[in-house]
Amino acid sequence: MAKTTFGTTSASLLPWLGLALILLIADQLTKVLILGYYQLGDATYVTSFFNVVRVHNTGAAFSFLASASGWQRWFFTAIGIAAALFILWMLKSHARQKLFSFALACILGGAVGNVIDRTLHGYVVDFLDFHYAGWHFPAFNVADSAITVGAICLVLDELLRVKRS
Question: What is this structure's pTM?
Answer without folding.
Answer: 0.87
